[in-house]
Amino acid sequence: MKSWFSGIEKKQENGIPAFAGMTLKGNKTIKNTVMPAKAGIPFVSFKASQLLKCFGYKRQIPRKQAKYAIERGLPCGFFEFLTMKKMFSIAIAGRPNVGKSTLFNRLIGKAMAIIDDQPGVTRDWRDGEGKLFDLRFMLYDTAGLEDMRPRGSIAARTAQRTKEAMARVDVIMMMVDGRAGLTNDDIFIAREIRKADRPIIVLVNKCESTKVTVGFNEALTLGFDRVIAISAKHGEGLGDVYDALKELAPETAFESEEDGAAQDESEMRLHLAITGRPNAGKSTLANQLLGEERMLTGPEPGLTRDAIHMEFTYRDHPIRLVDTAGIRRRSRIDEKLEKMSVQESLRSIRLAHVVILMIDADMPFDKQDYTIAQHVAEEGRGLVIAINKWDTVTEKTATLRMIQAKVEASLAQLSGVPIVPMSALKGDGLNALMKAVFQVYETWNKRVSTGQLNRWFAGMLADHPPPIVGGGRVKPRYITQMKGRPPTFGMWGNKLDKLPESYLRFLTNGLRRAFDFQGVPIRWDLKKGENPYDKS
Known about the structure:
Strand content: 15-25%
Number of helices: 17
Helix content: 25-40%
Radius of gyration: 27 Å
Number of strands: 19
Shape: elongated
């Protein structure tokens, strides 16, 4: 350990930047410590449990270990820093609309990034595990950089996010448009990328033909050693990209398929999506949960266009978080890009386990909030409603009662859904929100034994028999829980196709009260015939 510290101190003496005395949330400061010079991350504050993630490691350290290190004047995760395996990481950078997201989707093997001819679609950088032949790496898709960007503008803020992403990686792949040729923005970006002090590979995209494009020849004038012609759309030239990366990647990047334990760990993560109308505070909440300014935020509605996937740990619970684009009323959506953003948001809801619906305390639970909540219920996901900007509300008790009454009246299929007042900007109510999320997730996974269900079912039928329909009585005989996620129950009996919807709601509400299925959708599968377990 002593020699490790000595090596870092020598780097400082040689003028290589390292961080000491960084302020943590809660006004704690790491004193007399130095961070590896390679980090180079210009953040102001962060949560201790997120530190290793900021340095490109695949997992975070537990809070207890971080606290232990801080109290003893050590860098957070000091011991793990010596032993943990860092994943080889690559960032794709360049000006807008040169094909960065197309290459990102190809290398990670799925369409995570929205692709459109309109420039500036990507605003928040995203990451994903990429693969090129036997080479594995963490890949970052960044927002396009531009030379002219007024201070405080969206372009300036996205540029800052891109620089933060480039500071995390081992290699930067700069992409230029082979058809359009070199532009002033490309020359500016080349200067910016050089400042990151990382190995750089220039990719000249849109070189589908066998002829050498003008753009490729112009790219050679940038002065970089590695310039490769590719077609991100058709996958051409990726063999040359592999050869260039092979020289820069460590041996650990060439491992075979990840072991089953790592895959199991990914499957065990809680998939949490944040959704709501535009400008409701979704990205601000994501930043609070992550402990860093990961997502672009601001007063402008519709800043988030893609569904951004992020992994973090909350109190030793691994979570895969998705920050989605705001969903407006369908009648107000006319642009193709916004339609794609909304489709991606709806897809994120479908793939989530629990969904946080952010609503604005100034416009609580309007028709669009109801529409989104109903979609969550139809997809069978767990729901938690977060009332944001609660610190601006004066009549808190009356407002909360009004929202609760609206929710109970309009969302019968999600009766008992948790409603949590909070302030995403200040972090107030964050613990209560996550407590509700884990409670809903537990309920969403709950299983009830067949014996318990049928004892309850017999009592319900005895106290409130089904009504007579069409001259005969419907005769439910037996129920069992067929699965969880969401809770789904099968019912066997005679004439169940004539069972009134009102009686099914009566049974659903009884299930919620008897077995505490509050806040999650309950589904029924009505079967014909006798009890399949009756052998008589």
